[in-house]
Model the fold of this input.
Amino acid sequence: MKLTMKGDYGLRAMLDMAAYYGQGPVESADIASRQHVPVQYLDQILMALRKEGLVMSVRGPRGVHMLAKPPCQISMAQVMQAIEGYVPPMECLPNPDFCKLSPGCALREVWQKIDAMTQQILASTTIEELAQRHRTESVETMYYI
Done:
């Protein structure tokens, strides 16, 4: 699986909204600022997430967004599928005719295993798990003099 900036930004936006889950909607500009994502690009990503039923939005000059369901019910796989679709690590996986060596290729078998494991990890990792880990690991260091 190839992760693009679009996928990374989408996951970061979902983590941001998970941090505010249950507290009401969050403004696009605030998400963009906290996650260092250009606002217009974020709006495109949020639109894709909304189409897949992962995000609810209210349009307007100060567009607001929130998770459409609890973060424990949203997997990384769902987010990536909504934003990127299926992106194989190698072109020969979905299209064996792409390479003349595919039918007996030992490398293709390894790529298939890597892809299956990657998809399994993404499907079993929830936005809630990531948000909890993010909160615990992003504790600011205090310096005393």
Observations:
- Residues 106-124 form the longest helix (19 residues).
- The beta strands are 26-27, 55-58, 64-67.
- The chain has six helices and three strands.
- The chain has a mean pLDDT of 88.
